């Protein structure tokens, strides 16, 4: 999606989840976790509204545009298995998501920016597309520049990376190796993916 530059706490409050992980958005969510606006309290959204909110969670969390989300949906809808799970598992394999979950950055927008600026190599080749889908055997590492390595070492030292069974992370050499494919338990976003599938199938 086009990079969202508006108030992140407002999105978190509207969707009722910590979609954006910045410190300011987290503090604002703690202070006021009700939806924004004067006339939203006490109103129960329709089934359509609930499904739309779940879809918005996926788009904001993974940084997807509408067309990109539908491309992912089209790619998994013909495969066997739970379409909602397959959709989220495809999102989990994105380069910017793995950069974030390994602890290279504190938020997904930071990971997206780092990838777009060419800070990371995949199998020794610079990749600038945050939506690059990683496969088993792929290696992600920081480019061999002292400034970049010092930057990411500092972030990792103060970060709490997710423990991923399918990705091995070497914090000393700033390298992540994809060892397999993610499973349903590896999905990091709590969302009703089945309602999103129904929404996109209309």
From TrEMBL:
Which domain of life does the protein's organism represent?
Answer: Bacteria
Q: Which PROSITE patterns match?
A: S4
GO biological process: what's one of them?
Answer: ribosomal small subunit biogenesis
Entry keyword Protein biosynthesis: no
Pfam families in the cross-refs? Ribosomal_S4 (PF00163), S4 (PF01479)
| Keyword tags | Ribonucleoprotein, Ribosomal protein, RNA-binding, rRNA-binding
Recorded family membership: Belongs to the universal ribosomal protein uS4 family.
HAMAP family named among the record's database cross-references: Ribosomal_uS4_B
Q: What does this protein do?
A: With S5 and S12 plays an important role in translational accuracy. One of the primary rRNA binding proteins, it binds directly to 16S rRNA where it nucleates assembly of the body of the 30S subunit.
Task: Please identify the protein, giving its name as recorded.
Answer: Small ribosomal subunit protein uS4
The encoding gene is: rpsD
């Amino acid at each position: 999606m086009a990079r969202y530059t508006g108030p992140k706490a407002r999105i978190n409050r509207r969707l009722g989840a910590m979609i954006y992980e910045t410190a300011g958005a987290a503090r604002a969510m703690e202070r006021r976790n009700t939806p924004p606006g004067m006339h939203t309290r006490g109103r129960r959204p329709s089934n359509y509204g609930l499904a739309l909110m779940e879809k918005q969670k996926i788009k904001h969390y993974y940084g997807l545009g509408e067309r990109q989300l539908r491309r992912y949906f089209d790619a998994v809808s013909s495969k066997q298995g739970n379409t909602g799970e397959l959709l989220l598992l495809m999102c989990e394999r994105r380069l910017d998501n793995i950069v974030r979950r390994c602890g290279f950055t504190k938020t997904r927008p930071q990971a997206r920016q780092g990838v777009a600026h060419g800070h990371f190599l995949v199998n020794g080749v610079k990749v600038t597309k945050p939506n690059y889908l990683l496969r088993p055997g792929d290696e992600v590492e920081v480019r061999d520049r002292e400034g970049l390595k010092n930057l990411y070492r500092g972030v990792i030292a103060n970060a709490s990376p997710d423990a991923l069974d399918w990705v091995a992370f070497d914090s000393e050499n700033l390298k992540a190796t994809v060892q397999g494919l993610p499973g349903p338990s590896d999905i990091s976003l709590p969302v009703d993916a089945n309602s999103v599938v129904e929404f996109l199938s209309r």
